[in-house]
Specification:
This protein is α+β, with helices and mostly antiparallel strands and 196 residues long. Helices cover 27% and strands 33% of the residues. The chain is built from five helices and nine strands; from the N terminus they run αααββααβββββββ. A hairpin with a 4-residue loop joins β1 and β2.
Length: 196
Amino acid sequence: MEGGKEKRQKGEKGASPYVCFRIKHPFLLSSIPPFLLFTILPFLLVSFHVHDFHTSLTQMEFDAKSQTVEVSIRMFTDDLETALTQENGGKPIHFGGPTKPDQVLERYVRKHFVVADAQRKQRSYTYVGYEQESDAHWVYIEMPASGADPFKNIVIKQDILMNLFSDQVNLVNIQYNQQKKTVVFRNNQPVQAVSL
C-alpha cells in the first residue's frame, strides 16, 4: 500500500489520486479492459455467496448389527431454512437460533421422504436428529429392516426441496451387501421403484 501513498504524498507527476496501492503484477490486470473488470466484478462477488445448483444427497445403508436401515440426508442450510420457514407458516427458522427446529424438521422430512414396499405400504422410521457440516445439514433417520432383503422391490419418494426449486435434484445412494446403486429424483420423477 505504501507505494501509491508515497507517489501522492510526494506529488510526483502523473500520480493518480485514486491509486492507493501498487499492484506487484500489473500484467494480470492490464490484460483485462477496465470496463469489463467492473462489469464482471459484481457478478463474481455474488456468485461466491449464492450456490447455483439445488441438490440433496441421501445415503441409505443397511446395518446388519442393529438390523436397521440408516438414512442420512444432506441439504444446503440456506435452502433447508427456507423450506422449514415455509413449513412453519412463514415464521423464520434458523439453525443458529435459540430454539432447535427438530419438530418442524422432522415434520418436513416425513412429508417429503417416504419409503414403502411394493404394495405401497409405508415403512415407519425414527427421526434421530441433525448435524451441521459447513454450509449444509445432515438429517439422520433409522428404519427397521423388513424381511431378508431390505431394498428389494421398494418405492422411494424423495421430493425434498422440490416445492422450492424446479431444478432440484435429489440423489439417493443405496448400499447393501457390497452393492451400490444411485437413483436420481427430479421434479418430474419424485417417486421411483427401486430394487437392489
